Amino acid sequence: MSAHEPWTVSSISEALGNAELRRQFIAEINSAPVHELSHVAARWQVRAEMLAAAAERGGKIQASEAQGREVPGDRDVTDKILALAEQARRS
């Protein structure tokens, strides 16, 4: 999906890629009251964007591994999780 093009029901459906996700999306769109259509579409747009970003990251990781390079990104999030747990305990 181009950053310049507006999202449509069709482009969201296509971006989901998975037949089951598409079915769920279309079912929600079809059953939503008219005043909730934009909210339903916005939720699914976010999901489609997240899937596209994950696919892009996966492609970069796969390319790095295939070339024997260091995998990009921080995969060890232990310190982040421990900091969040400590923060939650203090709250």
What does this structure look like?
By secondary structure, this protein is mainly α. Helix content is 70%, strand content 0%. The protein contains four helices and no strands. The longest helix has 30 residues, at 37-66. The chain is flat.
Salient structural properties:
single chain; 91 residues; mainly alpha; 4 helices; 70% helix
> Number of DSSP strands?
0
Largest sheet, if any? none
Uncertain spans, ≥5 residues at pLDDT below 50?
Answer: none
Radius of gyration: 18 Å
Shape: flat
Q: Could you say which structural class the secondary elements and strand pairing correspond to?
A: mainly alpha
Number of helices, where a helix is a run of at least 4 consecutive DSSP H or I residues: 4
Q: Per DSSP, what share of the residues sits in E-state strands of 2 or more residues?
A: under 5%
The proportion of residues forming helix, as a percent range, comes to over 70%
Provide the succession of SSEs.
HHHH
